[in-house]
Amino acid sequence: MKLAALLTIVCGIAIAADTPETVMITYQAKPGADAALARVIEKHWATARNLRLVVDQLHLTLRIVEDDGRVSFVDIFTWRDERIPDSAPAAIQAIWAEMNAAVESRGGAPGIRIQRVGVVTR
Predict the structure, then answer these.
(1) In terms of pTM, does the model score above 0.90?
(2) Which pLDDT belongs to residue 9?
(3) Nearest 10 degrees: CA dihedral of 7, 12, 13, 18?
(4) 54: burial class by Cβ within 10 Å (0-12, 13-18, 19+)?
């Protein structure tokens, strides 16, 4: 009985399912940095896919131009597991540093705003 209980515990940990997390990230580009930021967002997606950190089914990047010409981007995607951002690989963290250098705070909002979202329709 003890061996069966141990195997159940070990197997339960080994086969624990990932818990996907869909996020919507808003990036407020610094003036003149929108093209560079767009490239970094694209690089982030490519790197995350290559490292198998994200789910391929849903990815959308939107570009917003305000009336005053300021540019923002919204990126929507799903991490394969909600724990990934908390322990992201060095390659992803380096890209995040590039992103932070290309954004600015506006109207009391941070340069990068991350929100957990749920998909209603596809």
Answers:
(1) no
(2) 46
(3) 160
(4) buried
